[in-house]
Amino acid sequence: MTDKVTTAMVLAAGLGKRMRPLTDVVPKPLVRLKGKPLIDHVLDRLAAGGISRAVVNVHYLPDLIEAHVAKRTVPSIVVSDERDALLDTGGGVVRALPLLGDKPFLIHNSDSVWIDGVGSNIARLIAAFDPDRMDSLMLLANGATSLGYEGRGDFCMDSDGVLLRRDEQRESPFVFTGVSIAHPRLFENAPTGAFSLNKLWDRAIDRRRLYGLRLDGVWMHVGTPQSVEEAERWIERAEGA
Predict the structure, then answer these.
(1) CA 138 → CA 16, 148, 190, distances in Å?
(2) Is the separation of the CB atoms in 115 and 235 below 8 Å?
(3) Max CA-CA distance within the chain?
């Protein structure tokens, strides 16, 4: 077993086109949910789950994100600069690898939002990661009980937690929340330039080294201005319960 995961990569470089017009003036990570920027929801959750250091990548309106995260001390923040080219999820992590170190690390989309059930899902994910068996461990939500999700699911999971892609003709209950833990070996011989993490996950699937963990709580698909309003109403109801 390796040391406990204490570093995270926060993917914050995207253009946020579906969030327009909000993202005409601020990058998506700074769009506010319940008065707090999405990225602060993420960073606060990471800190509460045991993450002490986060690498945040920037591309679109990067100065605004840099100035915002510079105000934080917990977790400590390092910026990975992608001003020269948008590298997609996989390329963005590859560029940041020198900043992430040689131990397993957590990857978190900057717009992934949920309400925890009992305890921290981040802490659960960290505790469940087994580097001897896993190249990556994904946090998965139940699509039927997720807010704002209307797809057919992403993955099928067997009794041991091993993941396969959903067959195109079928539905699956499990939706990727945008949060995972990755071992550095996942990125060995990775493509150069811009590419999606999906390429590396498919490779891990072929080796039966992509695993899943069910989220305890309610996940929210916050991708449009309307979904931000819906998430705020849901959180208000949950807090009033």
Answers:
(1) 23, 20, 19
(2) yes
(3) 50
Note the pLDDT of residue 1: 43
> Which residue do the tokens 């939706």 mark?
175
Which helix (H) or strand (E) element contains residue 236?
Answer: helix 225-240
CATH architecture entry for 7-240: Alpha-Beta Complex (3.90)
pTM of the predicted structure, to 2 decimals: 0.93
- What's the confidence (pLDDT) of residue 53? 97
In the chain, which stretches have pLDDT less than 70? Answer: 1-2, 169, 240-241
Residue 71: how many other CB atoms lie within 10 Å: 8
Residue 88's H or E segment, with its range, is helix 88-100
- Report DSSP state, residue 147: B
Tokens of 92: 């963005």
* Cα distances (angstroms) measured from residue 98 to each of 12, 72, 101: 18, 22, 6
